[in-house]
Design brief:
Elements (H helix, E strand, L loop, with lengths): L2 E5 L5 H11 L4 E4 L11 E4 L15 E4 L5 H4 L9 E2 L4 H19 L2 H10 L14 E5 L3 H11 L4 E6 L8 E5 H10 L3 E4 L13 H6 L4 E5 L8 H10 L2 E6 L12 H4 L3 E3 L9 H16 L15
Helix pairs in contact: 1-10, 3-5
The structure holds NADP nicotinamide-adenine-dinucleotide phosphate and glyoxylic acid.
Length: 309
């Protein structure tokens, strides 16, 4: 019998254990902190283990990330040189697309302005723009970006996207690489950031790039806080270069109570909840990778540490 060590910081540990018991009664699941024999652990499914923790399991074969992002694992300088599988599962993907559709519609339909009018007891129409005339751009055309594009396409938005490698996504004007970024920015009125945080993407939402968006553009960041230079975002909001921002992620989380983002009239803040891994579907995804590994098949969704994601 194989053993999986489970550590999550999310308060839903019981749901994971139930899902493992239902779907893999033959897999032994140990919950961190684990005091048994470290040599008994074959797999680890973790969110943010303390640095140095994972090197203590001599028979560990594969590390699974509870999340799609793996920057929490990159912080461990002693992370063993084992395959790391990111979380790619339909529940997480669906949740992100819900968030993106909600946030895009929020900006597209001027809800920040209507909320302000409501506070002030004003009743004024703002001219509606047809979705087919609204240009929405997605930074990051990976699992989450492509699904969000598919869901946004239902409304008829003009969609574009940007990735590292060249892509051909139906219904999306695809740009890639450093050279493609300028064109992407120039045509993006509502920008959705769904990039991983890597040395290349660090601070990509900065004064220069925000300045290349059409005046009055809106920014949605559901990737990682490290993508944004927060003072530059605030300056662009204050100057009117940006008409609004919906921010789920921040450089410092929890966002400190005195952050200007909380009270800025053109900002919606959510506490890193754009999407959550859903235990039932995530356990199925992990078990499929364990099955592949044990059958000698290639693992999917592994992290390339050279690329950083
Ligand atoms: P993914 O499938 O690996 O996709 C990442 C995308 O970003 C790919 O299209 C990739 O390009 C592109 N990219 C990476 N580095 C780039 C660069 N330097 N220049 C241009 N494009 C670059 O990842 P995913 O599953 O979609 O997840 C994306 C991120 O969402 C995660 O890393 C995580 O940080 C974030 N996330 C946030 C939440 C939340 O609740 N806020 C939840 C889940 C995930 P290629 O296609 O060419 O590789
Ligand atoms: C959440 O932020 C994730 O990376 O899954």
């Amino acid at each position: 019998m194989k053993t999986l060590l489970f550590k999550s910081d999310i308060e839903r540990g019981g749901l994971w254990l139930d899902a493992f018991a239902d779907q893999a009664p033959d897999l032994k699941v140990e919950v961190w902190p684990y005091e048994g024999d470290p040599a008994a652990i074959d797999y680890a499914l973790v969110w943010a283990p303390p640095a140095g923790e994972l090197k203590g399991y001599p028979n560990l074969k594969v590390i699974f990330s509870v999340g799609a992002g793996i920057d929490h694992l990159k912080k461990d300088p002693e992370l063993p040189a084992l395959p790391v599988v990111r979380m790619v599962e339909p529940g997480l993907t669906a949740g992100m697309s819900e968030y993106v559709v909600w946030a895009v519609l929020h900006h597209h339909r001027f809800l920040l302005d209507y909320a302000a009018q409501q506070r002030e007891g004003r009743w004024e129409e703002i001219n509606q723009i047809a979705a087919r005339r609204r240009r929405v751009g997605i930074l990051g055309l990976g699992h989450l970006g492509q699904d969000a594009a598919e869901k946004l396409a239902v409304f008829g938005f003009q969609l574009s996207g940007w990735s590292r490698s060249e892509k051909d996504v139906p219904g999306v004007r695809c740009h890639h690489g450093e050279k493609g970024l300028n064109d992407f920015l120039a045509e993006t009125e509502i920008l959705v950031a769904l990039l991983p945080w890597t040395p290349e993407t660090d601070g990509i939402l900065n004064a220069e790039t925000l300045g290349q968006l059409p005046k009055g553009a809106a920014v949605i960041n559901a990737g990682r806080g490290g993508l944004q230079i927060e003072e530059d975002l605030l300056a662009a909001l204050d100057s009117g270069q940006l008409s609004g921002a919906t921010l789920d992620v921040f450089r410092e989380e929890p966002l400190p109570a005195d952050s200007r983002f909380y009270n800025h009239p053109r900002v919606v803040v959510t506490p890193h909840i754009a999407s959550m891994t859903i235990p039932e579907t995530a356990v199925a995804a992990v078990l499929e990778q364990i099955r592949r590994f044990e059958a000698g098949e290639a693992l999917q969704h592994t992290v390339d540490f050279e690329r950083g994601y």
